[in-house]
Amino acid sequence: MKEIVELLIQKQETVAIMESCTGGYITHSITNIEGASSVLRFSAVTYSNEYKIKMGVLKETIDTYGVYSEEVAKEMSYQIHSFTNATYGIGVTGKMNRQDLNNKRGEENAVYFSIYDSKRDYYDTKKLLLPLESRENCKEFVRKEIESSFLSILKK
User: What does pTM read for this prediction?
Assistant: First the structure.
């Protein structure tokens, strides 16, 4: 994440993050880096559908595709960007080695993330199949994938 923070500072750009299954881990990883306060606009952990909706995700999108979907990850990334006017928005949703009795739809052990680039009006969205490991290891796996994708965007 050090390179991401350095590139954002250099480009005078910002990021905002809406996380669900990663529980703030992506934000935590960024705030561990010196200078993060100049690039991180805002973050929200939205475990419940209710708070995803309060942050701008359409209830209809959740109802149509399920909360664990590429479509919801895209809306999360766009809405958090829009809420904060950040250059980039990151949205993360998925099931991490547990069943969700309130949201039965969605593939087990699959996480979706989306990075919205407001300069290009572009979404980089991916589905990750998680290893059957601890939640901590799964969060780190997701972080590495997001870091790799975000670096690719920033280096364009």
Answer: 0.94
